[in-house]
């Protein structure tokens, strides 16, 4: 077994390598997000997007938040040939409902018939893990 200073040096080197790899990934992800936002494109395969949505909904259920009803007048009367802006009033750091509970609707294109994007502060997209999840579930800055 190596002495303590040598183990610490090895750990620091590994940490630096992982940090550098994540920095490269982060730069690539921000560029991918910028390109997707300019084209209105989707990022990632649909199965991975829906898996991320399922995980987010599960996390909401752990906190006692669940979807009670999707019934309402808004979705029934959408003319799919027109464009709509769906809005939520944010309460806090992140808009909870469209991200944790209804993100799959944006991926599946409900209720307007084609995929749509939930927008948020550009700063949120720069946070590790949060930015990746938001990008994957059709979030855009």
Considering the chains and any ligands shown, give keywords for the structure:
two-stranded parallel sheet, 141 residues, mainly alpha
Structure in words:
By secondary structure, this protein is mainly α. Helix content is 54%, strand content 3%. The protein has six helices and two strands; from the N terminus they run H-H-H-H-H-E-H-E. A two-stranded parallel sheet has the order 1-2. Strand 1, helix 6 and strand 2 (139-140) form a beta-alpha-beta unit. The chain is elongated. The mean pLDDT is 80.
Q: Which consecutive residue ranges, at least 5 long each, have pLDDT under 50?
A: none
Largest sheet: 2 strands, parallel
Give the helix/strand class.
mainly alpha
Helix content: 40-55%
Number of helices: 6
Number of E-type strands? 2
SSE order, as H and E? HHHHHEHE
Q: What does the oligomeric state look like here? A: single chain
Shape, per Cα inertia axes: elongated
Q: How confident is the prediction overall: mean pLDDT?
A: 80
How would you write the strand order of the largest sheet?
A: 1-2
In percent terms, what proportion of residues is strand?
under 5%
What is the gyration radius calculated from CA atoms?
19 Å
Distance between the first and last residues' Cα: 49 Å
């Amino acid at each position: 077994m190596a002495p303590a200073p040598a183990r610490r040096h090895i750990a620091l080197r590994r940490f630096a390598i992982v940090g550098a790899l994540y920095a490269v990934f982060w730069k690539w992800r921000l560029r991918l997000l910028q390109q997707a936002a300019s084209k209105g494109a989707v990022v990632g395969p649909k199965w991975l997007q829906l898996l991320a949505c399922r995980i987010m909904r599960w996390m909401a259920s752990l906190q006692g938040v669940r979807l009670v009803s999707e019934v309402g007048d808004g979705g029934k009367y959408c003319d799919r040939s027109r464009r709509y802006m769906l809005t939520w009033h944010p309460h806090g750091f992140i808009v909870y409902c469209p991200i944790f509970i209804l993100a799959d609707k944006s991926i599946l294109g409900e209720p307007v018939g084609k995929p749509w994007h939930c927008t948020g502060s550009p700063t949120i997209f720069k946070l590790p893990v949060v930015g990746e999840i938001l990008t994957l579930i059709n979030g855009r800055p």
